[in-house]
């Protein structure tokens, strides 16, 4: 690190758990953020400010006026722009030392697997089960930890699925792909603005912990937030050894 980096990240370096070594890991890391909306905005902003060296933003949507109530990475002046381009501009303003790749596309199949395999950590900030299951499958196959978040109305949840650990579940252990779950969209149901900030920021925190190798991750635990009462519930999530996605791992 040069003098400017030492100054910029000095408050991290002062933490014994991070120090120079941990910050160096962050600077060398690549984070893949799927979704540049309500969750992806705070997640990506904190990853950039914390010094994650490379961030890849993936989102095929454009900035809409209705997004601005909660998607804090975007501005009124950038309505109509691709969200990933708006996001890249926002991240460059916060930390020009971070290399940001903006992919205005819907990634799937081999393309998704390639992107996941190139990352040190993946943050799923999408808003539908099909994408979440596709990202989870790619993470399991590549052995890359996944930080998953969701938010609708006043209800949020966040967890880590790190199948590098033999005892840890994957997303499909919690939400089996063959089971039908009701899809709910904030465009229909609404969402409390600060809720996505809380969940997205927690996703960033878990990703930074995983990269720096500090603390205990949320692997094996699901945190659920009722923002009306501001109450958290923690649920233990066990590995399903018959899971069609990750069940073939060693016991």
TrEMBL record:
Residues 9-245 form the THIF-type NAD/FAD binding fold domain. GO terms for molecular function: ATP binding; molybdopterin-synthase adenylyltransferase activity; sulfotransferase activity; thiosulfate-cyanide sulfurtransferase activity; ubiquitin-like modifier activating enzyme activity. Catalyzes the adenylation by ATP of the carboxyl group of the C-terminal glycine of sulfur carrier protein MoaD. The keyword Nucleotide-binding applies. It catalyses: [molybdopterin-synthase sulfur-carrier protein]-C-terminal Gly-Gly + ATP + H(+) = [molybdopterin-synthase sulfur-carrier protein]-C-terminal Gly-Gly-AMP + diphosphate. Homodimer. Forms a stable heterotetrameric complex of 2 MoeB and 2 MoaD during adenylation of MoaD. CDD domains: ThiF_MoeB_HesA_family. Gene3D superfamilies: NAD(P)-binding Rossmann-like Domain (3.40.50.720). Belongs to the HesA/MoeB/ThiF family. Pfam families: ThiF. It comes from Herbaspirillum robiniae. Coiled coil: none annotated. Its EC number is 2.7.7.80. This is Molybdopterin-synthase adenylyltransferase. PANTHER family: ADENYLYLTRANSFERASE AND SULFURTRANSFERASE MOCS3, UBIQUITIN-ACTIVATING ENZYME E1. The keyword Nucleotide-binding applies. One of its GO terms (cellular component) is cytosol. It is an enzyme of class 2 (transferase). Keywords: ATP-binding, Nucleotide-binding, Transferase.
């Amino acid at each position: 690190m040069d003098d400017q980096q030492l100054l910029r990240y000095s408050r991290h370096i002062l933490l014994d758990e991070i120090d120079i070594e941990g910050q160096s890991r962050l600077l060398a890391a690549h984070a893949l953020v799927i979704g540049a909306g309500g969750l992806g905005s705070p997640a990506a902003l904190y990853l950039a400010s914390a010094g994650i060296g490379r961030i890849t933003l993936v989102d095929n949507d454009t900035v809409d006026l209705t997004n601005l109530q909660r998607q804090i990475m975007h501005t009124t002046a950038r309505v109509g722009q691709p969200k990933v381009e708006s996001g890249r501009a926002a991240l460059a303003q916060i930390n020009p030392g971070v290399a940001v790749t903006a992919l205005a596309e819907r990634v799937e199949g081999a393309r998704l697997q390639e992107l996941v395999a190139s990352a040190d950590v993946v943050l799923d900030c999408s808003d539908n089960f099909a994408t979440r299951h596709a990202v989870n499958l790619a993470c399991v196959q590549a052995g890359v930890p996944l930080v998953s978040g969701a938010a609708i109305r006043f209800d949020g949840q966040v967890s880590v699925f790190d199948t590098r650990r033999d005892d840890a579940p994957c997303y499909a252990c919690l939400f089996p792909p063959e089971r039908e779950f009701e899809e709910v969209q904030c465009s229909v149901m609404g969402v409390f603005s600060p809720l996505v900030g809380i969940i997205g920021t927690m996703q960033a925190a878990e990703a930074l912990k995983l990269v720096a190798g500090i603390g205990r991750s949320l692997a094996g635990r699901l945190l659920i937030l009722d923002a009306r009462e501001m109450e958290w519930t923690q649920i233990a999530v066990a590995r399903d050894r018959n899971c069609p996605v990750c069940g073939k791992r060693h016991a």
